[in-house]
Amino acid sequence: MRKNFGELFAGSFKCLPAGCRRYRVGGFALVVALLGLGSAAWAQKLQMPAHEKVVLKNGLTVLLLEKHSVPMISVAGIVKAGGLADPAGQEGLASTTAGLLRKGTKTRTAQQFAGDIDFIGGTFEADAGADYSSFAAEFLSKDSAKGLELVSDALLHPTFPQAEVDKLLAQSVDGVKAAKDSARDVIFEYYEGYLYNGKGYGRPTGGDENSLKKIQRDAIVKFYEGYYTPGNTILAVAGDFNPAETKKKIEEIFGAWPGKAAPAVKEEAAGPMKGKKLLLVNKADATQTYFVIGNVGVSATDPDRVAIEVVNTVFGSRFTSMLNEALRVESGLTYGATSFFSLQREPGPFAMFSFTRNETTRKAIDLALEVLKKLHTNGITAEQLGSARSYIKGQFPPTMETAGQLARLIVRHEFLGLDDNEVNQFEQRIDGVTPEMAKQVIAKHFPLENLTFVLVGKSSEIAPMVKSYAEKQDVKEISAPGFWTGAK
Amino acid sequence: MTRVVFKEKPMKIRWDRQVPLLVLLVAMVGVCRVSGQEYPVATKTLKNGMKILVQTDHSIPNVALYTFYKVGSRNERPGTTGLSHFFEHMMFNGAKKYGPGELDKVMESNGGSNNAYTTRNVTVYQDWFPRTALELIFDIESDRIRDLSFDPKKIESERGVVASERRSSVDGQNEGLLDEQLWATAFIAHTYQWPVVGWMSDIEHWTIEDLKHHFEMGYSPSNATMVIAGDVTPEEVFALAEKYLEPIPAHTPPPPVTTTEPAQLGERRLVVRKAAELPLLMIAYHVPQTNNPDFYALNVMRSILFQGESSRMYQRLVDKDQIALDVESESDNAFDPTLLLFLAQPKQGVDPATCEKAIYEEVERMQSSPVSDRELQKAKNFRLAEFYRQVRTINGRANTLGTYEVFFGDYRKLFDAAKNYSAVSKEDVQRVAKQYFGANNRTVATLVPENEEKGKP
User: Fold this and answer.
1) What is this model's ipTM?
2) Domain assignments of chain B as residue spans, ordered by start
């Protein structure tokens, strides 16, 4: 019930060891094979637990992973079309379609669906990111038949009742407004919009106050019918189940989904932006300025991803990182400073993020830029490299401790075309990052001259302080509809 | 995934040292049909009074170590509010062996990470590390419990950090702001009235003497419970505890909080006016402390009212009347009688009074007629699933076992919860609804967007 402060840094993306994902339901990662060894003696060789892949006749990819630690089952799935498939001006269509899956099916009203999933203590949620739509469910093993049937009902038989469409769209518009009451909840929407100039990953996957109003039921039905096909879907089931029985059950209920070809979603990869630009979003009551600085980063399958993870651990993704040391520990300017690469199918953003009181806005941004420069000038030491390796390896196992984490991990790997070596060779790859590789990665992937700045704060106090950062400057009122939809 | 982002946490009971990387469920709900044997716990009380709980799990080569101190903002005084939370930050800023900054550097370079949180009742320190770092962690923990030092320069920079934390969660979060005003209005005598993070003017004025006094008051080993879950054996943990922790002498625990909040004799109301896109509504009711037998019936009632999209409040306010974007309930574990909160995020253009009226009608329905068999069973099924969600990670187990130990006085209550929830009857639910949710016992807080009042969109 409690949602914690972690969202502050997580934004909508936070780099985790196994790669960054815009998958909100939880972390990912790996587990260790016990191999019957005594606990103290076993070698710490990380292994992806055995899992099975089945492609049904209709084209649905099914992944099964047994894990019996608690009597629960987790389901995670991806439909290979997300916000990038939204028609221009109708941003939020994929997200709305996903949100409506449980809001009325051929045999259940929204209320009946809620009653049935709640009664078994289960959960079902669905939403869309830029690359794909996703759904996740969880229930007790004893309720597996009911749980799987509910998932299939939402996925295969949604009816998109007009009243539910209207209700959800109205809620989403208010959701955008409510989010704007908190700078940290929206700064990354502005950042992505401004960085990509309203194209590709710069379009708001959840929509904005304008685009949500343009979405019609017909478009939702068309989106569903076009993209929600078995061949376009990956489904993972992980947890405490009998594999033979479960496979049979899945074939029975999901095998009935008629197969047809889905259109491919065109993704135009964006390279790093040239030059400097700055967007100041005015929030007149702000006592603190939130800022993001960065450029386009790398994709989830970039060959440099492991070295980037190591360097970024040193630079900005742990408590003793260079950024947090400078802005928090040594100067007390902020509660936290961090940096991350959002790893998606195409190059996602790289960002440095922090916040500070209005009066110290200039000082904190200068310091962040200084730390970035220092990374380029001094590189990282052998000691920092060793520490980062230990830290990443030590923090990795708990990210793949539960069935839900594992289900999301294998689905994502399947989507991105990554294999089990992401886990099985993880330690080896981390240990293989040399000082020379680190140096190359810094030069190649940590932008120094070409930077996009986005600030949310009290314009009347901070605008004069930030004039010199970029020649190109834009301003926007936070209460003005939308985030950033492109230069006029 | 934007929609989820917009579901903002409604209130901030807990103040973390840094942004947590692991998502924790602090709200303590537990029920199980499993026996305690599935999660065996070994315990030991050291000669200095510190209690150690060990729960072995070899499924990953990692360990979660939580240390609970029974000291929080309820132990503070006017003028130094927020000191417990500030002190929590200072526990990372240098001791005798590990000087300023060294604790984090050493821990991270050995694969570990840490955090801490402070509530009105407790201060909790968290370490997550590979099992190879076990002895090192004991060395670090013992160093700061025994020989914490206070560097005046660190105090000043940390003051800035906490001020930024406050700006971020109170100034920059309407829920945080309204919540703070609500507690300050609902309590007139008890120390629960001030915010855990402290008033800004107190943050600006704490002294090194205040910190030293707080350390002496709250940080006796006899005031602490340590819970270790993960790839360890009780034997090795107890041996390390004897070596590193047992020699630390016990001293006087914090003086008891003797103030009892007088019964509330009529509704209290408050309004916060500020620039905002949307209004907010919070309603607080005085309820008993966590170890009161009504804990279970109250949780069942909350589940029926708020849990899931089939809950009564969601169905009424979000689905049927479409007057709210979201409706939730919050409470935190407490040693003394505390508050149970209802929160509603009204939709744009909806008067919060409309949401308030609908909420009261649902409360009255709960008071006047029994809930259905299916609703009661649904609440119990939810509590069972919730139990497994809490114990499926070593982190969740360390936190949940420690929370039961501290707030119920016995971690085994976690394994009795099944029995206690299944004993809740429809009559119990109706009785607590009548007993605690009357108009005289409530405080109502409303945030009114100023721009809206001026007629701006």
Assistant:
1) 0.91
2) 9-244, 268-396+408-453
Distance of CA B166 to the CA centre of its chain: 17
Domains of chain A (ranges; CATH) run: 56-254 (3.30.830.10), 277-398+418-477 (3.30.830.10)
Q: Does A71 touch chain B (CB under 8 A)?
A: yes
Look at residue A8 in the predicted model and tell me its pLDDT: 30
Residue A36 has pLDDT above 80, yes or no: no
Residue A363 to residue A333: CA distance in whole angstroms: 9
State CA A310 to chain mean position distance. Answer: 20
Query: Nearest residue on chain B to A284, judged by CA atoms?
Result: B275
Query: B1–A356: do the CB atoms touch at under 8 Å?
Result: no
- The 8-class DSSP code of residue B447 comes to E
Q: Quote the distance between the C-alpha of residue A428 and its chain's center.
A: 26
The pLDDT-based confidence of A35 (bands split at 50, 70, 90) is very low
Return phi, psi of residue A20, to 5°: -85, 145
Domain B9-244 sits in CATH at: 3.30.830.10
pLDDT at A31: 25
Is the CB of B108 less than 8 angstroms away from the CB of A387? yes
CA-to-CA separations, A87 to A46, A84, A93, A208, B236, in angstroms, rounded: 43, 8, 8, 14, 61
- Tally the residues of chain A: 488
- How far is it, in rounded angstroms, from Cα A194 to Cα B56? 49
Number of residues that make up chain B:
457
CA distance A57 to chain B (A): 31
Residues B319, A139: C-beta atoms closer than 8 Å:
no
CA-wise closest residue to A235 among A119, A152, A146: A152
At residue A471 the predicted structure's pLDDT band, cuts being 50, 70 and 90, is very high
Is residue B302 less than 8 Å (CB to CB) from chain A? no
* Residue A203 touches partner B, C-beta closer than 8 Å: no
Q: Report pLDDT for A264.
A: 87
Give the pair of three-digit tokens for residue A437. 């590789």
The enclosing H or E element of A332 equals none
Residue A383, pLDDT > 90, answer: yes
Q: Any bridge partners for residue A337, and if so which?
A: A354
> Which one-letter DSSP state was computed for residue A287?
S
pLDDT of residue B415: 85
Q: A5 and B384: CB-CB below 8 Å? A: no
A8 in contact with B, Cβ within 8 Å: yes
Cβ within 8 Å of A, B 184-223: none
CA nearest to B347, candidates B2, B4, B6, B5: B6
**What tokens does A63 get?**
């992944």
Query: Which segments of chain B have a pLDDT < 50?
Result: 1-12, 20-35, 452-457
pLDDT of residue A66 exceeding 60: yes
Residue B108 has its nearest CB partner, among A8, A319, A334, at A319
Burial zone of A78 (CB within 10 Å; 0-12 exposed, 13-18 middle, 19+ buried) = buried
Residue A170 touches partner B, C-beta closer than 8 Å: yes
Chain A hits for B89, CB-CB cut-off 8 Å, are none
pTM: 0.91
Judge contact between A136 and A408, C-beta under 8 A: yes
| CB-side neighbour CA atoms (13 Å) of B147 | 13
| CA distance linking residue B20 with residue A398, whole number of Å | 14
**Chain B residues within 8 A of A285 when measuring between CB atoms:** 274-275
A398 to B60: CB separation less than 8 angstroms, yes or no: yes
- The dotted CATH code for B268-396+408-453 is 3.30.830.10
At residue B155, the pLDDT reads 94
Residue A315 CA to residue A308 CA, distance in Å, equals: 10
Q: Which amino acid is at A80?
A: K
Q: CB neighbours of A163 closer than 8 A, spacing ≥ 6?
A: none
| Interchain pair B395, A398: CB under 8 A | yes
